[in-house]
Amino acid sequence: MSYPMPEGEQVRRAIKWISEQLQGNPQQKLWPLINEATTRFDLNPRDAEFLIHFYQKAPAK
User: Fold this and answer.
1) Rounded CA gap, 6 and 41, in Å?
2) Which residue range is the domain that position 44 belongs to?
3) d(Cα 37, Cα 59) in Å, to the nearest integer?
4) Is the residue at 4 inside a domain?
5) Which of 17, 27, 36, 44 has the fewest Cβ atoms within 10 angstroms?
6) Is residue 41 classed exposed, middle or buried when 0-12, 13-18 and 19+ CB atoms within 10 A define those classes?
7) Which tens digits make up the pLDDT trace of 31-60?
8) Where are the alpha helices (DSSP H) in 1-61?
């Protein structure tokens, strides 16, 4: 199933925030960051699901 980029600015801000956190500390666990971003940016369940799938499909470094 394909997940197109949501139109909401909050999701874009959440992705940016998670990416910054991971850059600052690459050893951080992703799930707690996604949970915090969901709360911090007041994301609905659909947007939270998008974040999960977005980071699951992200290429490994």
Assistant:
1) 14
2) 9-56
3) 20
4) no
5) 27
6) buried
7) 999 999 999 999 999 999 999 999 887 665
8) 9-24, 30-40, 45-56
Closest of 15, 8, 9 to residue 33, by C-alpha:
15
For residue 10, the one-letter residue type is Q
38 half-sphere exposure, CB direction, 13 A CA radius: 15
Residue 37 inside a domain? The answer is yes
- How is residue 54 written in tokens? 């977005």
2 within some domain: no
Q: Which of 8-17, 18-27, 52-61 has the lowest mean pLDDT?
A: 52-61
pTM of the entire predicted model: 0.79
Task: Please check whether residue 33 lies inside any domain of the structure.
Answer: yes
Residues 6+ away with beta carbon under 8 Å from 6: 46, 47, 50
